[in-house]
Records
---
Amino acid sequence: MCPHRLVLEHVTSRWGVLVLIELLERPYRFSELRRAIGRVIGGRGVSEKMLTQTLQTLERDGLVHRDAKPVIPPRVDYSLTDLGREAAEQVRALAMWTQERMADVENARQAYDEARALTARAS
C-alpha cells in the first residue's frame, strides 16, 4: 500500500478523526479522551482497545505525543505534535464542511436515488 494512503487512512479513520479533533483543544489523559469522544458520538463510545490502537498508530506516524509521567498512580497524557496539529486542523475543517453541507449532500442523494428509480422502472 502507498505510504501516503496509509497515513491518510490513519488520519481519516473513524477514531483517528475524533482523536485528532479532541486533542486540538488540549492534552488529555487516556480516560478523559475516551469520555470526550463518547460525548461527541453519544452512546458507548470507543473501546479501550480501539483507542489504544488509534493512539499508538497516530503516535507512530508522529502526530500524537505520549507523555508517561513516573508517578504513582501512573499518569499518561496525550497531545498533538506540531505535525499532528497541522493534520488535525485539516481534518477539523473537513468535518466542519461536511456538517455545514450535509443538507446539500442529502438533496443530491435524494435526486440520485429518484433518478435511479425512474431508470429502473423504465427498463
---
Amino acid sequence: MSTGLEALPYRHVLTVPAMGSAVRIARETTEQVLAEWGVGRRHPCVDPALLMVAELVTNSVRHAAELSPSLTVVFAGGPDTFAFAVHDRHPHQPALHDAFTGTGTGSGTGSGGLATVVELTLQLGGSAVVRADADGRGKSIWITLPL
C-alpha cells in the first residue's frame, strides 16, 4: 500500500529517551508542528492526533523501552494530509486489526490505547499501518490523516 508519504513536503523528526516524559514532549511537539504547518488548534484532526501520538508513545515507553532506549516520532505533512509515525527498536509488531476488534492472543492488556488509535484513525477517514524495520528488530506505526 502506497500512502504517498514521500511526496509530502513538510517533515519534522523528534527523538527522545523512552521514558515517561517522552509523552508530554511528543504531544507538545505535535501541537507545535501542526501550528507551524498552518493547521489551527481548532481543526478537527488536532485533538485526535494529539491523543494518538500520546497513546503510541506511551505504548513504546511501556513495551519497548527495555530494547529501545529511545524512540522517534516522524511527522510528514502537506496541504491536505498529516502523517506521523512512532518508531522504536522492539521487534513486536502489533496487529492493528486485532487491537481494534479485540481479537488476537493474550489477555488484551495494553491493547486499549492502540484500539483507540485505530478507532480514531478510521473515524477521521485516515489509515494506520505497521512497518517493520529492514532488519526486523524494530517498527514504526504510521498514521495518515486527511486535513
